[in-house]
Amino acid sequence: MKCFFSIVVLTDSIDLKRYTHTDVSVSSRNHPHYVGQGFVKTKSNRIDFVSFISADRNSYAIINLRLFDLRIGRIILIAPKKDGTLRSLQLDSPTMSSDEMDNHLKWILENNKQVIDFFTKPDNI
User: Fold this and answer.
1) pLDDT tens digits for 27-82?
2) Among residues 78, 91, 15, which one has the least CA distance to residue 47?
3) What is the tens place of the pLDDT at every residue in 85-110?
4) How far apart are CA 110 and CA 11, in angstroms?
5) If DSSP codes are grouped into helix, strand and coil, which group holds residue 74?
6) Contact at 8 Å (CB) between 120 and 114?
7) How many Å apart are CA 113 and CA 117, to the nearest integer?
8) Which residues of 66-92 are buried (b: 16+ CB within 10 A; e: fewer)?
9) Nearest Cα to 22, choosing from 50, 47, 52?
10) How far apart are CA 11 and CA 47, in angstroms?
């Protein structure tokens, strides 16, 4: 299956034993429509998201009640700030498999200056 949405959240809290800091599920109870939902926790926040793609290939994500049109970009980066607010950055990417997306995200996080600057701002958590 191809990825229609990826979210990358900066967090300061990771549960390496039970992975309770995050949860993701994708389903299709009425194919060809798909819905994904989940959350990522930080020490003081929880970022919730719902995303969907419809049969006509329109796709959207709602992240902490902010609406993103995924036709503009399939990758959403979220950087929680020390003051409790969230910043986001939406990036375009081609449709790819989950394995391809994992490699693509790894490359972006390590090599894309805009992304590195976004996640390393001093007012981030």
Assistant:
1) 888 888 999 999 999 999 999 999 999 999 899 999 999 999 999 999 999 999 99
2) 78
3) 999 999 999 889 989 999 999 999 99
4) 17
5) coil
6) no
7) 6
8) eebebeebbbbbbbbeeeeebeebebe
9) 47
10) 10
How far does Cα 116 stand from its chain's mean position? 16
Which residues face 90 on adjacent strands?
76
Total count of residues recorded for the chain: 125
As a whole number of angstroms, the distance between CA 79 and CA 7 comes to 11
Q: Which is nearest to 36 in space by CA: 63, 14, 13, 11?
A: 63
Which element (helix H / strand E) includes 68?
Answer: strand 66-69
Give the span between the Cα atoms of 54 and 71, in whole angstroms.
12
How far is residue 74 from each of residues 5, 18, 52, 96, 104, measured CA to CA in Å? Answer: 5, 28, 11, 10, 12
- Does an H or E element contain 100, and which? helix 98-111
Q: Global pTM?
A: 0.91
